[in-house]
Amino acid sequence: MRKVYLIVEGQGDEQALPKLLNKFVKALGLEDAVFAVAQRSSRCSDEDLRKQCADLRTRRQIAGAMFVRDCEDGCPKHEAPRMAAVLRAEKLPFPVAVVLFYREYETLFVATLDALAGKRLVGPQGSELPPLDASASAPPDPERNRDAKGQLNKYLPKTHPYRETSHQLAMTQALDIEALRSAALPCVGSLERALTFVLTSPVAGVYPPSPEAREA
Predict the structure, then answer these.
(1) What angle, rounded to 10 degrees, do the helices at 46-56 and 76-90 form?
(2) What DSSP string describes 85-139?
(3) What pLDDT shows up at residue 85?
(4) 167-186 pLDDT per residue, tens
(5) Residue 184 pairs with which residues in a beta bridge?
(6) Which domains does the chain have, with CATH numbers?
(7) Quick check: 83 and 23 in contact, CB under 8 A?
(8) 66 close to 190: Cβ distance less than 8 angstroms
(9) Contact 101, 80 (CB under 8 A)
(10) What is residue 88's predicted lDDT score, i.e. its pLDDT?
(11) SS3 for 49?
(12) Does the reported pTM lie above 0.90?
């Protein structure tokens, strides 16, 4: 079974992202893989990326790596190729991908509020969390506002506001992949292509591809 290492931003990502990726592995019909977090880092400068690559080189039995983070107010169309170019220059001996959530990981939940409404939420160590109100519904443009957590809090009890260390895992586990696909968020398509690349590429390389490779 392939082992893929992840570079993520926070503790909530560390818990939730492997669950999300496994959901997509099943939805895409890909071969099962093990997803392990190599690092948590909120930094993604060129130098930071080089240091993260150096760490990945020390990992054993690594079949691939994914750099996954929020893009917030940035532009994934510009930032992902910038990061990919740095990673490509490092010439890692396995497939590597960059995935940027616009605006946040939690935007995935905002886009699927209709499907998440009223669902049972189970957090770390099996802890039960109050569900989103049954009236919850996705806004017309889930990516318009940066404060995805604030949008989720509109439908959570005031006594139990959204917390990354508990709700991110719980909502990821409750997430319906087909509902997420129907929301047509560009970052979801990027995630599916990146995951497919890392798990099926027979040779080393980086997703997204360089502009030259796209034109070839």
Answers:
(1) 50
(2) HHHHHHT-SSEEEEEEESS-TTHHHHHTHHHHTT--EE-GGG-EEPPPPTT----
(3) 97
(4) 999 999 999 999 999 999 99
(5) none
(6) 2-102+185-215 (3.40.50), 107-182 (no CATH)
(7) no
(8) no
(9) no
(10) 98
(11) helix
(12) yes
